[in-house]
Amino acid sequence: MRGKTVPGPIKVVHLSSVHPADDIRIFWKECVSLVRAGYEVVFIVPEKSASTGTRSRENIKIIPVSRHSGRLGRMLLTVAAVTAVALRQNADVYHFHDPELIPCGLLLRALGKRVIYDAHEDLPRSLANREWIPRSLRSPIALTASAVGWIADRALSGVVAATPVIARRFRENRVTVVQNFAHRSEFLDTTNPAAPGRYTVAYVGAVVPSRSAVEMVDAMTKIDRYPGVRLLIAGDISPEPLAARLEASAGWQRVDYRGRQDRAGVRRILAEARVGLALYHPVQAHMDCLPTKIFEYMAAGLPVIAADFPGFRRIVEDNRCGLCVPPCDVAAIASAIEWIFDNPAEAQAMGCRGREAALNSFSWDSEEQALLRLYRRVTAGLGRAQTVQGRPTTAH
């Protein structure tokens, strides 16, 4: 019996020298969406111990490389390890997520591969505000980053930008905006009734000074009318001295620290909470971002207390789903939490409005389609075929 010819899957390798194997944007959104669209997907990722070896999850092949400590170790040794593994994969498309991997991307492009750069932040603006960079070097380093981005924009096959603000750094016909909206299907069954007597606040994400970690914990000491208030924190604390500082503060007595959580753990925490916090220090890179946590709080039916930035206000206040406060003002954070507890009916209405907006207007479904359109453009002309039943067709 003669069979027709159908194309073999196009092989895609995602690369990171920073992000974990279960990163929400890279793994759970982009990689999973590509697998469902018929691509063969590999994720090369740094881990503390690479001895766990290659494994598969959600039909995605995960290849670990050793994570080296310190910025210099990461930017040299980890990047070299990621690059070496990437070269051995001989994939059709490479999609990298960290600016230090731009040289790797340019090398792969020079070897004839199709390469996509995923810009998670406005790098030049971000570097201009990094505290670990001496002030005298910040402007030259930011200018260098801008020049490297300009080269990448013109040399690579395509650019993905996490926000419209980041997209402005690149040519309109080369960049695709893919935002960090929540998975509609992940929260469809989530309910969050405002249970009487439950005074619980949630924070999900990296626990670092620039994301108001100290201010959130200190705010717990200012909430006098609700002595049973608890702050649920899910995420890694860094740097190490911050953990000791937080644990020594009076507010830590009201913290339930859960550590890093998988997706099921995040959903459980959001189901326990009455309000979600999304607070960042007012540096330009933060003011231009659109954090995943805001959309997940909304999708879970939680009112949001967010930093008083223009972009955050457009999401939170325009959809009447929460409050915006000065993110470094401990008293203002505490007052906003008390307002949510004082007004349960309006807080529940905020949660309902946020959920409706998240599921209908800020859903990953639309972003997934933008990603797949980019991949169809980048992979045009590819089509390694294997014979299974007779005549050739085209892939993607």
Task: Describe the protein's architecture and organization.
With 396 residues, the protein is an alpha/beta fold. The chain folds into 2 domains: 4-181 and 363-389, Rossmann fold (3-Layer(aba) Sandwich), CATH 3.40.50.2000; 184-360, Glycogen Phosphorylase B (Rossmann fold), CATH 3.40.50.2000. The chain is built from 16 helices and 16 strands. The protein has helices at residues 24-36, 71-89, 102-110, 123-127, 135-155, 164-167, 184-187, 213-219, 240-248, 263-272, 284-287, 292-299, 310-316, 330-342, 344-360, 364-378; strands at 4-7, 11-15, 40-47, 55-57, 60-66, 93-96, 114-119, 158-161, 175-177, 200-204, 230-234, 255-257, 275-278, 304-307, 322-325, 385-389. The protein has an 8-stranded mixed beta sheet, sandwiched between helices. A 6-stranded parallel beta sheet has the order 12-11-10-13-14-15, sandwiched between helices. The longest helix is centred in the middle third of the chain and has 21 residues, at 135-155. It is globular and about 65 Å long.
Biggest sheet strand line-up: 4-5-3-2-6-7-8-9
Which structural class matches the secondary elements?
Answer: alpha/beta
Number of helices: 16
The CATH architecture of the largest domain is 3-Layer(aba) Sandwich
The overall strand count is 16
The CATH homologous superfamily of the largest domain is called Glycogen Phosphorylase B
For the largest beta-sheet, the strand count, sense and barrel status come to:
8 strands, mixed
CATH fold type of the largest domain: Rossmann fold
User: Kindly, what is the distance between the CA atoms of the first and last residues, rounded to a whole number of angstroms?
Assistant: 27 Å
Mean of residue pLDDT values: 88
CA-based shape:
globular
Rg over alpha carbons: 22 Å
Low-confidence runs of at least 5 consecutive residues = 1-6, 385-396
Strand content: 15-25%
CATH class group of the largest domain: Alpha Beta
- Relative helix content: 40-55%
Q: Return the domain count.
A: 2
